[in-house]
Amino acid sequence: MTIKLDGVTTDQRGMKYGLFLIVALLWLTGCAGRTGSVTVPVSTLDLSAPPILVADASSATPLAADATENLPDDPFDPFAKPGEEGLDEYDPWEPVNTKVFEFNRQVDRWVMKPAAKGYNFVVPNPVQVGISNFFFHLRFPPRLFNNLFQGKFKGAGIEVGRFLVNSTLGFAGFVDVANDMDLKTPEEDTGQTLGFYGVKPGPYLVLPLLPPFTVRDFAGYVGDIMLNPINWLVAPLIEVKNVPSVIAHENRDTTSIVQTGGRVFEIVNDRSLNLEKFQGVEEATLDLYTAVRNAYLQKRAKAIQE
């Protein structure tokens, strides 16, 4: 069954499979990374690898093993009014969030971590790094667009330079040559763009098989998926009338398999790269839920300020 909106046809079944897979994968790599026995999204805490279970998403970053050591008692809120900087985290849904968080931890413990260990045994670390670079390379469009949306034209230029250099000298992005050339810029996503224009973060939100969010960042996460041409022109989650795609619109099962398979592969690869870091965080943290939440909110506030 499809829905047509202003010339755009969305495949409900394709969207359902594709988005569910992306969510599940993103979480394990993100909160789970965007985290060993911990399904803490790597991007949630603050390592420097992609999410554990994280589409394009234009960008996400894991949690560092010592992230909790330098966390302030209260994360900085860039939208707080003068005198309100010390407000506690806005987590009105904490009773539900903690249950979902524990569910994600168990998925990571019994599914993602064992899979990542097996994968790590078979695939050499340099190959894993190359695969991670490749998936990051594919998320170039959302990063570029969000730099432009925020008027960060220097950042947009650097993103274009990175893409061209890594596409050629970096063998389609497998080798991050641009990084060695000091072509670096903060990663921008739609959640940051919304924050840039004054949209408040809203409540903290934990969803099954996804990294942590605020309501604003979840809207941005969906926006990043929409901004990635791969989801329109290669394996179309969204069908645009009269616009062709590599996988034909009618081949919805193929699209679902490609989207899901790619997401799972990326998540397992990222989880494998961060096995020791996640394990260290889990063993060193008594209240993992609070640590992940604080690190995520602090990280996002800092990203919007940059």
Question: Mind sketching the topology for me?
Answer:
Elements: E1 2-5, E2 8-11, H1 12-30, H2 94-122, H3 125-138, H4 140-149, H5 153-168, H6 177-180, H7 190-196, E3 204-205, E4 213-214, H8 215-227, H9 230-234, E5 238-240, H10 252-273, H11 275-284, H12 288-305
Antiparallel strand pairs: 1-2, 2-5, 3-4
Helix pairs in contact: 1-10, 2-10, 3-10, 4-5, 7-8, 7-12
Characterization of the model:
The chain has 306 residues and is mainly alpha-helical. It has one domain (2-305). It is built from twelve helices and five strands. It has a three-stranded antiparallel β-sheet. Strands 3-4 form a two-stranded antiparallel ribbon. The longest helix is centred in the middle third of the chain and has 29 residues, at 94-122. The chain is globular and about 50 Å long.
